[in-house]
Amino acid sequence: MSQDKRVPIEASTTTQVSEPPKEEAEGTTSRSRAVAPKASSSPLHGLWALTNRDLRKWYTNPYQLIISLIQPVIWMGLFGKALNFSTFITNAPGVTTQEANALLLKTFGTTSYFSYLVCGMLVFIVLFTSAFSGMSVVWDRRFGFMNKALTTPVSRGTIVMSKILQSVGRSIIQAAVVLVIGIALGMTTGSLSVLGVLGAFVVIFLVSMALSGLFVMLSLRSSDWQTQMAIINLLNLPLLFASNALFPTSIMPAWLQDVVKLNPVSYAIDAIRQLLIGARGTNALWVDFTVVLAFAAFFSAVGVVMSWRLLKK
Questions:
Q1: What backbone torsions phi and psi does residue 270 show, to the nearest 5 degrees?
Q2: How far is it, in rounded angstroms, from Cα 185 to Cα 84?
Q3: Angle at 104 between CA 263 and CA 195, to 5 degrees
Q4: Residue 237 and residue 219: Cα distance in Å, rounded?
Q5: Geometric angle at alpha carbon 59, from 55 and 60, rounded to 5°
Q6: What span, in angstroms and rounded, lies between the C-alpha atoms of 103 and 250?
Q7: What pLDDT, in 10s, does the model give residues 190-218?
Q8: CA 75 vs CA 28, 70, 102, 204, 251: distances in Å
Q9: Which of 56, 94, 158, 222 is the most buried (most CB within 10 A)?
């Protein structure tokens, strides 16, 4: 009878699963874990991002710049050259050149009406560029970007300021181009200086801040572009024609002169004429600067404050 032979299973033959070293395990875990990028919470970062977004849509499309310059160039090239008061007065029978220059200087503050008009066109381009700053708010609301922006940590005041600053940037660039075109068409340059040009563009910066703040404030609750266009047409022409952009205040009716004195745009144009062409101003230069600065501070602040109440999803 055979005897069962049982082969003992030794412990050394068992399969053991060895654990990786602790350092290697920790390294593998840390590499496999994705590190989320830390978002910047700086208000300036959000302000720059939103401002650059709107500016990029403008400077990547050169046709917008060209189209925006057509109107002031037409005013200068056609209206400014056709309505040449200097030629009218000089060609009048019995009027000498000295008498004509004295009359022009008394009426316009300068002997060149074209130069007088070019300074008005600098604020003209700012006025129309600022008016469409509110349209950016309307389109952002219609296409859903505004709702997305309102869900981010960016404050409502930052959103409003980005709309104002992108309009200011566009206004300064377009005003510089208009000034170069005006000089090429015959604007007098005898009184031009570096400080005068810098001072004029400080005024342009301030009046653009004020007008952009006004139109952005009026668009905070608007989602209809037709309503916004009606507001632009309602305000733009009165602000332009009830100012000294085209004609001096002294030749206007008495009731209109009072309106012109209440229009801050007139003070900006008066300061620019003094700085660029040395024209005799209606007001002292410091008075013009004070009014334009107060105008800019008021509407920029009101636009930010109103955004806290009106800028909603």
A1: -60, -40
A2: 13
A3: 60
A4: 18
A5: 110
A6: 13
A7: 888 999 999 999 999 999 999 988 888 88
A8: 71, 9, 26, 19, 20
A9: 158
Contact in structure between 216 and 163 (CB atoms under 8 Å): yes
How many Å apart are CA 40 and CA 46, to the nearest integer? 8
Instruction: Output the CA angle 241-84-249, nearest 5 degrees.
Output: 35
Domain extents for the chain?
A: 64-310
Is the Cα torsion angle 139, 144, 150, 155 positive or negative in sign?
Answer: negative
Question: Nearest CA to 276 among 163, 62, 123?
Answer: 123
d(CA 131, CA 211): 7
Higher-confidence residue of 35 and 72: namely 72
Please say whether the beta carbons of 114 and 76 come within 8 A: yes
What confidence tens digit (pLDDT) does each residue in 230-271 have?
888 888 888 888 999 888 998 899 999 999 999 999 999 999
SS3 content of the chain, % helix, strand, coil (to 5): 75, 0, 25
- The structure tokens listed for 302 are 């009101």
* Six-digit token string for 84: 């040449």
Residue holding tokens 């509110």?
134
Q: How many CA atoms lie within 13 A of 244 on its CB side?
A: 27
The stretch 273-286 carries a mean pLDDT of: 90
Count of residues for the chain?
313
41: CB partners within 8 A, 6+ apart: 153
DSSP classification of residue 78 = I
Q: For 139-146, what is the mean pLDDT? A: 77
